[in-house]
Write a structure and sequence with these properties.
By secondary structure, the protein is of the alpha/beta class. The chain has one domain: Glutaredoxin. About 35% of the residues lie in helices and about 20% in strands. It contains eight helices and nine strands. A five-stranded mixed β-sheet has the order 5-4-3-8-9. A two-stranded antiparallel sheet has the order 1-2. The longest helix is centred in the middle third of the chain and has 20 residues, at about 75-95. The two termini are about 25 Å apart. The model is unreliable at about 1-20 (pLDDT under 50).
């Protein structure tokens, strides 16, 4: 119960500074989409480079939507690796998993993120989804230079093309395409706990 209270607190802490569709000046100033909102009507790309509406990609299947910074990010790589252990119980619940980032379709394929058992990856290189979910923020020149110093290859990612990143986030979406749960944390080192995510997905499946 304590974990769930903490997660709600993180979401509320972020509300109220920058409207969705805008790019916040920092990760702490984003304004994520609210629980109860419908999935935004935006276009992203498949790994083949074909445009697809996010609503069409989700359909009427309950969904866990994972926004991550990119395949270059070691914390994101760990999150995706850990997610593999959560996919099977989610699928048993009837829930699909979609990963989305500013990686180009080519980069997703090159980094061998697709296929990964049970996860569909989409490219948001144009940032339409990242902005619509209120997760986009500007990164500084110094930050980009720091990534280069760590030999983190961000070529073909929104951090190199737009100097914009998403705050990592997880949304649980019901069959009506309404957001029922969100975990959004400006500290990119901290990701959603698997047990909390499973509980949130199970709650959606119990709804009439």
């Amino acid at each position: 119960m304590a974990k769930r209270t903490l997660l709600v607190g993180v979401t509320l802490m972020l509300a109220g500074t920058v409207a969705a569709q805008e790019i916040a000046p920092s990760a702490d100033e984003i304004r994520p989409i609210l629980i109860g909102s419908r999935v935004p009507d935006v276009v992203v790309q498949t790994i083949e480079g074909s445009p697809v509406g996010l609503r069409d990609a989700i359909g009427d299947t309950p969904t866990v939507l994972v926004f991550y910074r990119g395949s270059w990010c070691p914390f994101c790589s760990k999150q995706l690796a850990d997610l593999r252990h959560t996919v099977e119980p989610l699928q048993k619940l009837g829930v699909q998993v979609i990963g989305i980032s500013g990686d180009s379709p080519e980069r997703v394929t090159a980094m061998s993120l697709e296929p990964q058992a049970g996860v569909t990856f989409l490219s948001d290189l144009g940032l339409a989804a990242t902005k619509a979910f209120g997760l986009a923020f500007h990164v500084t020149d110094e930050y980009v230079e720091k990534l280069a110093q760590y030999d983190l290859d961000t070529e073909g990612n929104s951090v190199s093309t737009e100097q914009v990143l998403p705050v990592p986030a997880v949304f649980v979406i019901g069959p009506d395409q309404l957001i029922t749960f969100s975990y959004v944390n400006p500290n990119y080192r901290v990701r959603c706990d698997a047990d909390v995510l499973l509980a949130a997905a199970a709650a959606v499946m119990k709804q009439p």
